[in-house]
Amino acid sequence: MDTARTTSSSSPDPHPDPRPRSGRPPARRSTRPWLAFGVDLALVVGFVAVGRQEHSTTDGLAGLLMTASPFLVGLLAGSLLTWFPRSWDRLWPHGIVVWLTTLGLGLFLRVWWGLGGAPLSFILVAASVLALVLLGRRAVSRALGSR
């Protein structure tokens, strides 16, 4: 008979291992993903605000949110596709998926909802600016997180 197994199972371990059986530390709830998502939202709204200012549109906050709505839906869809609480600072492939979903779905919904066209010049500017802000934010988050 194995004497190591004959100890009473009713006595609690004085130093239980807090790690799950996978060997990884327990998941910690963090506000960073939500803060990062909020920054992404602000960056997309900022992109739309600058574009609206360049075209002298003056229908206030409601107009800004209406114009931004296709891209915000795209951002939300891309963030959900990549499960952003676990991938909020990953550039590849998660950041690329969020960027392309924000751009593609945003352009599609912009045209489908009758909020404007999608000429090549707009597509190129939107692709460039959204890549800069969405991928740039992830690169900065990753760099600051590795300090």
Describe it.
This protein is mainly alpha-helical. It has one domain. Helix content is 66%, strand content 0%. It contains 5 helices and no strands. α1 runs antiparallel to α5 (120-145) and α2 (60-81) crosses α4. It is globular and about 40 Å long. The model has no long low-confidence stretch (mean pLDDT 85).
Fold topology:
Blueprint: H1 32-54, H2 60-81, H3 84-87, H4 91-112, H5 120-145
Helix pairs in contact: 1-2, 1-5, 2-4, 4-5
Q: Gist?
A:
With 147 residues, the chain is mainly α. The chain has helices at residues 32-54, 60-81, 84-87, 91-112, 120-145. It contains five helices and no strands.
Relevant terms:
globular, 5 helices, single chain, mainly alpha
Basic shape: globular
Enumerate the spans where pLDDT stays under 50 for 5 or more consecutive residues: none
Report the sheet with the most strands, covering strand number, pairing sense and barrel closure. none
What is Rg? 23 Å
Number of strands: 0
- Nearest-integer average pLDDT: 85
Helix content: 55-70%
By DSSP (H or I, 4+ residues per run), the number of helices equals 5
The end-to-end span amounts to 53 Å
The secondary-structure class comes to mainly alpha
The proportion of strand residues reads under 5%
User: Could you spell the SSE succession in H and E letters?
Assistant: HHHHH
Total number of domains: 1
Biased composition (Low complexity): 1-12
Region (Disordered): 1-29
Keywords: Membrane, Transmembrane, Transmembrane helix
InterPro entries: DUF3054
